[in-house]
Design a protein that fits this description.
single chain, mainly alpha, 4 helices
């Protein structure tokens, strides 16, 4: 087996950039499809925008499929947007120090939004105690 030297930092960086570029293309296509499905289900089926209320979301998230669908869409959109902003920071930030701080803020904000969004999707209570019964979905007691 021939000896292969360790990969240089430049080569590892270019592989990451290639993977990030591929991720942007594939996630963009998948997001486009998911967004049109999301808009069709929420706005075209049923009564259109008049149906969008707490009961609609509660009924939709009562099914695990829609929870996972919205979770995947959230994660893809946040990662896609974060990667795009990372590229903009690399292009326009003047110094390495400003790039580091801007990327740290970007990463922190992205992690917080992904964590909070995931928490909301999976801890959402469709039938909260003490709520106005007229605002609840029909399946609530």
């Amino acid at each position: 087996m021939p000896f292969s030297p360790p990969r240089s930092r430049l080569q590892a960086s270019s592989n990451f950039e290639m993977l990030a570029w591929l991720f942007m293309r594939w996630s963009g296509v998948l997001l486009l499809v998911m967004i049109f499905i999301h808009l069709f289900v929420n706005l075209v089926l049923g009564d259109g925008i008049q149906q969008l209320d707490f009961a609609f979301v509660a009924g939709k998230w009562a099914h695990p499929f829609w929870q996972w669908f919205d979770l995947i869409m959230l994660w893809l959109a946040m990662l896609h947007g974060t990667n795009g902003l990372r590229i903009i920071i690399n292009d326009y930030a003047d110094t390495a120090r400003s790039r580091l701080w801007l990327k740290a803020v970007l990463l922190t904000c992205s992690i917080v939004i992904i964590a909070l969004g995931s928490l909301v999707i999976f801890t959402f209570e469709p039938c909260p105690l003490g709520a106005d019964p007229s605002a609840l979905p029909t399946f609530c007691p």
